[in-house]
Design brief:
There is one protein chain. With about 350 residues, this protein is α/β, with parallel strands linked by helices. The chain has 2 domains: about 190 residues, Rossmann fold; about 120 residues, Elongation Factor Tu (Ef-tu), domain 3, CATH 2.40.30. It contains 12 helices and 16 strands. The strands form 4 sheets. A 6-stranded parallel beta sheet has the order 3-6-5-4-7-8. Strands 11-16-13-14-15-12 form a 6-stranded antiparallel beta sheet. A hairpin with a 2-residue loop joins β9 and β10. It is elongated.
Length: about 350
């Protein structure tokens, strides 16, 4: 089988995204497609054949699955392929730092979106773990003994650059390598990855998103910034003025500044141009304080309720504002849609 090669990954201290690397098909003959497990216990019960082959694993939050994560996963898959072993990515449904600090950590990707992105990179399995207080209190040795060696039966582990595992961050690469030698797990550290002189970082991407800098977010993600969510029932006010919207909850997610955006909505493999508003809808819902993502999908008819969609942000049109009434709001929305159509056509985004 031949590898799939992508022009997306930088080398350390590179001044730009300038190296091609290859994603090989999954190493295990057991998996024509990646498998998903919802806990270590789930893997123990349903992944015995993978464990029997002594996989090569990596552990990380992988929020955003940015270029640094993609490069690490490429290393993981190549290492597993050389060992004729499965490749497994262990990740978390909630950012560990959120539990450690007690402060919310807006996510670039929902757990399901993150799992899907990791799957698309070609790992044999993704284990999505709930990071709870008990796991937080595990020492690095306990984590290696109980989970990496015990549940996964790993032969090797690739650690992200400067990543730490275990209570109070005690599990540096050096500490993990020492533990690994004792329990029979080869531990290595992945390379540091930079784009245009900037280190890859989910925190940096969150900052770019918060400032509406989609160009930098795209540079670091290796793809356009997007939000994935399930369309919820709203009050249908948009439909009453001729602009029905698909409403998506932003709770727990990183999102751009409040305003109107030109977007591309992806549904079941098809793309639709759209006009999106992020905000509190001051004209029709002045008491609202929690931002909401509303997308008016152009050239689409059908029921989106309950369906998962991906909203890719293309450009900003204007800030959110309060209008004198529904007629003024309707007139402005018509102008927004016209501008989005024109600009998308000019920029080749349709």
């Amino acid at each position: 089988m031949q590898p799939t090669c992508s022009f997306v990954s930088p080398r350390p201290r590179a001044s730009a995204v300038e190296f091609t690397f290859c994603f090989w098909p999954p190493a295990s003959s057991l998996a024509a497609m990646s498998r998903a497990f919802i806990s270590f216990d789930d893997f123990s019960a349903k992944g015995r054949e993978l464990a029997a082959l002594r996989p090569v694993v990596t552990v990380g939050n992988f929020d955003g699955v940015h270029l640094g994560h993609q490069y690490l996963v490429a290393e993981l898959i190549e290492w597993a392929r050389r060992e004729h072993a499965p490749s497994i990515a262990v990740t978390f449904s909630v950012h560990p730092r959120e539990l450690v600090t007690g402060n919310p950590m807006p996510a670039l990707t929902t757990p399901e979106h993150k799992r899907r992105l990791l799957t698309e990179l070609g790992v044999d399995a993704v284990v999505l773990v709930d990071f709870d207080r008990a796991l937080q209190q595990r020492s690095a040795r306990d984590f290696m003994d109980l989970y990496i060696k015990g549940r996964l039966n790993a032969r090797a582990m690739l650690v992200g650059f400067n990543n730490r595992i275990g209570k109070d961050g005690e599990g540096t690469t050096r500490v993990l390598a020492e533990i690994g030698r004792e329990i029979g797990v080869d531990v290595r550290e992945a390379e540091r990855i930079e784009v245009s002189g900037h280190a890859m970082s989910s925190s940096a991407i969150r900052n770019h998103v918060a400032h509406g800098d989609f160009l930098w977010a795209r540079k670091m993600l290796g793809r356009p910034y997007s939000i994935v969510g399930v369309v919820q029932h709203g009050d249908q006010r948009g439909g009453k003025i001729g602009f029905p919207t698909a409403n998506i909850d932003l709770a727990g997610l990183a999102f751009p500044p409040q305003g109107v955006y030109g977007v591309r909505l992806r549904l079941s493999g098809k793309n639709y141009l759209g006009a999106a508003n992020i905000g509190t809808r001051p004209t029709v819902d002045p008491a609202r304080t929690t931002p909401l993502l509303e997308v008016h999908v152009l050239d689409f008819s059908g029921d989106l309720y309950g369906k998962e969609v991906e909203v890719e942000f293309l450009f900003k049109v204007r800030d959110e504002q309060k209008f004198s009434g529904l007629d003024a709001l309707k007139a402005q929305l018509a102008k927004d849609v016209s501008e989005i159509r024109t600009r998308a056509a000019q920029e080749g985004l349709t």
